[in-house]
Amino acid sequence: MNKLKHASTWALPVLLTVIAVVWAVAAIGGILTATAHPAFAYSVAVLYDAVWLYGLAMETAHRRQGSNARLPEVVGWVFLPLTVAVLAVHGVLAGDALAAAVGAIVPVLAKMTLVMAIDRDRTRISPRAQAAIDRTRAVTRDRIAVSRAVAAARADETVAAAGIIKASREAEAEAITTAHDAYETYAEIVDQHPVPDWHTDLPALVSDRELEALLAGGVPEGDSAGGTGGFPLTVTPGGHGSGTPPLEGPREANSRAVALLAVELYATDPPPSKRKFREAMRAGMKARGLTGGWDVIDALYDREKALAEGGDPS
């Protein structure tokens, strides 16, 4: 029953509005067809009435919820005299005064009945309460806008972070690929051009007898002055019937000389640091034409240090 009463309130305004809109479309389209294509003329008429209907609908919605409807009201009252004038002109051009009068009255009746229906159904509250409602709605809209902005910012941050992670992973993959290609190229070059093993074993330990002879400025017993070693004439070394011991090879002689140089340089008080020992060894080896890498020099330093501290040189 309540729905029926509510429908009866809006039945007449809706019917009059539909009649006014249809009549206005026909009138505007009929007038414009004299100077424009019919499709264009009636399209303009439909757009005109669509704007008018939109203004009426917004005015109705605002009035029913008690909010401010100033702009829709202005649109509705501006379009009302225009529609009245269009319908009147259309009737005059058709030579029918009655049609012109009735056509001009229909939009007015539609507007009046619509205003009455809106006033009957609108929410009647005090201006103070309406202001409180407007503030609440404004705060709610602000919160919604802030929430949407925060969500959008977080989404942008997530997308940017994903892009950064993707770029870093691609860079790492490219670096790994480059290193792998370099290793493969190196392996191919080594296979095609093998490098000989120049690594030499550590020189043998210098005995206490040789160390004392070296520090005394002499030649150890059993060694020749040239440093190539020797044997007593009463001993016949294996492989030589003449009694002359076999000569050391160049590598053994070099290793022996490097070891003696290490003993000489470490026998200082206080012992040199590893850095100074390396510098002195490099300078002494360069002056004497000896060869040997940093690994040999470091191993000799560690051995001499262990001997000086009474530890195991191995």
Poorly predicted runs:
223-245
**Kindly, what is the distance between the CA atoms of the first and last residues, rounded to a whole number of angstroms?**
112 Å
Portion of residues in beta strands equals under 5%
**Helical/strand content category:** mainly alpha
Estimated radius of gyration: 56 Å
- Could you give the order of the helices and strands? HHHHHHHHH
Number of strands: 0
Characterize the main sheet. Answer: none
Residues in helices, as a percent range: over 70%
Q: What is the mean pLDDT?
A: 79
Number of helices: 9
Task: Tell me, briefly, the overall form.
Answer: rod-shaped
Description:
By secondary structure, the chain is mostly helical. Helix content is 73%, strand content 0%. The protein is built from 9 helices and no strands. The protein has helices spanning 2-32, 38-65, 70-93, 97-121, 127-192, 208-215, 250-266, 274-288, 294-308. The longest helix has 66 residues, at 127-192. The radius of gyration is 56 Å and the shape is rod-shaped. It starts with a helix and ends in a 6-residue tail after the last helix. Mean pLDDT is 79; it is low at 223-245.
Features:
single chain, 314 residues, mainly alpha, 9 helices, 0% strand
Topology:
Layout: H1 2-32, H2 38-65, H3 70-93, H4 97-121, H5 127-192, H6 208-215, H7 250-266, H8 274-288, H9 294-308
Summary, kept brief:
The protein is built from nine helices and no strands. It is an all-alpha fold and 314 residues long.
